[in-house]
């Protein structure tokens, strides 16, 4: 059913963005359906908004998860042509991550590094959380992007009478970040994820592999998380949108006026962060911070996201703010343009500390 849904969504988005109808073939045994569904959802939203360039970019990213020839039996098929055109751009990085995730769930013999990581995670859970109801391994290790220094990101479902906590541990010489929570507290964490529009815990579960699941809780939580990610975050409220538009407009004025190199770089960072918030909000996409900012930004809008990131590099490498200003203004124009005079903010008192 998931494959059929992905096929229909991607084909519809691509048909909307091209002049002719087209055919899409997906092999259920060779794709990661969850990854394709996320790409399909983003493509559909962009096509519905009339942004056909972004719709094609998301459709192209989704098509890289299809494993097969580009359609020799239909050389004029626009989907086949799109798949071939996107191959060199998307295939290597996208398949490296998605196949690791897919095979970890479907392949009884996952790659050796993942097998070792799963063994370490199981040992940690058994030793440290003997009463665990379920546990999953997420993060870069589950996605096949781990480095020699990557830690293990483990989510553990605890009995209701236990205490929710986040712990940093070292097990068998490897660092691990453990997110241990009861069912009730997990619901609050996910609600906070939605409110922040970052979805951190949702991504851990959605992109995870099972460590411990005697009662089927992990499988259910992973499915729920994938459904939540596919649904996307709530849109920015008008007030939130205006606040971010005003902030970005003010930052762009500062960027244009900056003569001190350190100030220019500091302001450029804030321009990138604020523009990313607006773009993700406009696309109904999840946002990120730190290393996740560029990853989520490219997911939200491959074309504009890349332009914004490349423009930030131009400021750093050549002290030229013009491309960053242009990219940020393009994002502002999607949401009504710059906002200066006429904006007001109600004072709600000082923020109280703990």
Draw up the topology in text.
Blueprint: H1 2-17, H2 33-48, H3 52-63, H4 78-106, H5 112-128, E1 134-138, H6 139-143, E2 152-158, E3 165-171, E4 174-182, H7 183-196, H8 200-206, E5 209-212, H9 217-231, H10 238-257, H11 261-283, H12 292-300, H13 302-318, H14 322-334
Parallel strand pairs: 2-4
Antiparallel strand pairs: 1-2, 1-5, 3-4
* Number of DSSP-assigned strands: 5
Strand order of the largest sheet: 3-4-2-1-5
* Count of separate DSSP helical elements: 14
Indicate the percent of residues in helices: 55-70%
Q: Give the SSE string.
A: HHHHHEHEEEHHEHHHHHH
Query: Could you say which structural class the secondary elements and strand pairing correspond to?
Result: alpha+beta
Q: Give the strand content.
A: 5-15%
Radius of gyration: 22 Å
Unreliable stretches covering 5 or more consecutive residues: 1-7, 13-33, 64-75, 85-106
Report the major sheet: 5 strands, mixed
Distance between the termini: 48 Å
Overall 3D shape: elongated
Mean pLDDT across residues: 81
């Amino acid at each position: 059913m998931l494959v059929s849904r992905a096929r229909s969504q991607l084909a519809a988005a691509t048909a909307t963005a091209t002049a002719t109808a087209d055919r899409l073939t997906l092999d259920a045994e060779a794709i990661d359906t969850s990854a394709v569904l996320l790409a399909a959802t983003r493509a559909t939203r962009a096509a519905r908004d009339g942004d056909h360039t972004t719709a094609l970019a998301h459709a192209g990213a989704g098509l890289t998860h299809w494993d097969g020839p580009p359609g020799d039996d239909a050389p004029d098929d626009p989907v086949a042509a799109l798949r071939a055109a996107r191959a060199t751009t998307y295939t290597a990085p996208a398949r490296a991550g998605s196949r690791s995730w897919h095979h970890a769930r479907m392949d009884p013999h996952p790659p050796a590094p993942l097998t070792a990581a799963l063994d370490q995670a199981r040992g940690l859970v058994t030793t440290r959380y003997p009463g665990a109801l379920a546990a999953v391994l997420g993060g870069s290790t589950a996605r096949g992007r781990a480095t020699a220094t990557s830690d293990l990101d483990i989510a553990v479902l605890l009995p209701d009478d236990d205490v929710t906590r986040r712990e940093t541990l070292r097990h068998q010489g490897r660092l691990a970040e453990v997110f241990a929570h009861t069912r009730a507290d997990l619901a609050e964490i996910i609600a906070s994820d939605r409110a922040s529009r970052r979805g951190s815990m949702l991504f851990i579960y959605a992109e995870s592999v099972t460590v411990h699941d005697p009662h089927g809780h992990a499988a259910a939580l992973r499915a729920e998380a994938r459904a939540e990610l596919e649904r996307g975050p709530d849109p920015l409220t008008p007030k939130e949108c205006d606040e971010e538009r005003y902030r970005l407009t003010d930052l762009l004025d500062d960027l244009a006026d900056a003569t001190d190199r350190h100030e220019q770089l500091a302001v450029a960072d804030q321009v990138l962060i604020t523009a990313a918030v607006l773009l993700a909000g406009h696309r109904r996409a999840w946002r990120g911070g730190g290393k996740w900012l560029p990853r989520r930004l490219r997911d939200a809008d491959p074309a504009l996201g890349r332009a914004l990131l490349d423009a930030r590099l131009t400021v750093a490498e050549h002290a030229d703010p013009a491309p960053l200003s242009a990219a940020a203004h393009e994002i502002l124009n999607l949401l009504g343009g710059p906002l200066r005079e006429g904006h007001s903010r109600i004072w709600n008192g000082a923020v109280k500390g703990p």
